[in-house]
Amino acid sequence: MAGTRNARNGPLSGVRVVELAGIGPGPFAAMLLADLGADVVRVDRPGGSGLGIDPAHDLTNRNKRSVLVDLKAQDGPETVLDLVERADILIEGYRPGVAERLGVGPDVCLARNPKLVYGRMTGWGQDGPLATSAGHDIAYIAVTGTLGMIGPDPDGPPTVPANLVGDYAGGSLYLVVGVLAALQHARAHGEGQVVDAAIVDGAAHLATMIHGMLAAGGWQDRRGVNLLDGGCPFYGTYETSDGGHMAVGALEQQFYDEFVTLLGVEDIAPARKDLRRWDELRATVADRFRTRTRAEWTEVFAGTDACVAPVLSLREAPAHPHLAARSTFVEHGGLTQPAPAPRFSATPGAVRSGPALPGADTDEVARDWAVPSLTGKDASQEPEA
Description:
The chain is α/β, with parallel strands linked by helices. It is built from 13 helices and 11 strands. The radius of gyration is 25 Å and the shape is elongated.
């Protein structure tokens, strides 16, 4: 039996995932599956990824196990195929054609395991003029129009949203949705398939509502002038007297009424519906916020329906009373980190283990999955059910 460290819980308990090591959205997608209870085995390459992150602090590798396999060695591909034969899902994030050249492409994997869901994570997708080109999050969201609509100043540059919109929202989340949908199909029909998850596709899809508003004339095709992009004076951020910021989202009338009352600017409240007075309203709100500290304004709006919240830093967020009460952040192995999400009433997830260190679990996986080729030894027992 596997040790307590790897005891499975969560709705994906019993699902086996092979992750071919990479960086960015692929590992994060595999972490999501692991958080949900899947047994994720990360196939690390000798020498590491070259990204320079200390593996002991790479939280995207939590809840996983790691084995070392050199895919360029003569027996490397066959060892991975031995894992594939016992897996439900495979995730890879190479450029198109690389997995095929390494001998672990979808054709050979599906020949070994016809029920396999083969998840491919790329920026540009498996086809198209840019498919084989290098790229990063910022380029993917740039060409989809997603980057161009983010930012408060219509005449200034777009605001770069870290790599959250492309890599993780448009990439990882769509890959997870895709492989889980394909897994359902495989279990119902005995047919595996390839899931082509491209960040450009996901990032474009994320803006579906905005495209609808654009078509209806309710959204201008430039940033910083619309309801949800900083153009609206009652949906945005404002600086406080101590250099902090407050976030305001008082869109509905009843929330707006409470907001202006608590802020003390009721006299200009009617400007909400007059677009010609939005600049005046924004200046008045900004001036008012600069009269108190972030903590003072937080106290003013606490427990109200004004839809106002303090803008916290990454280190501050875990101590927020609401997040602390819900245990939105947890500590494991001395590392504070976001807890698994979403939550399940019958099959709760958990942080079971810290970041998998490259190759640290080779013997354990060889035993549990009955893959002696990982170690060159005979399997000591049958794989776990």
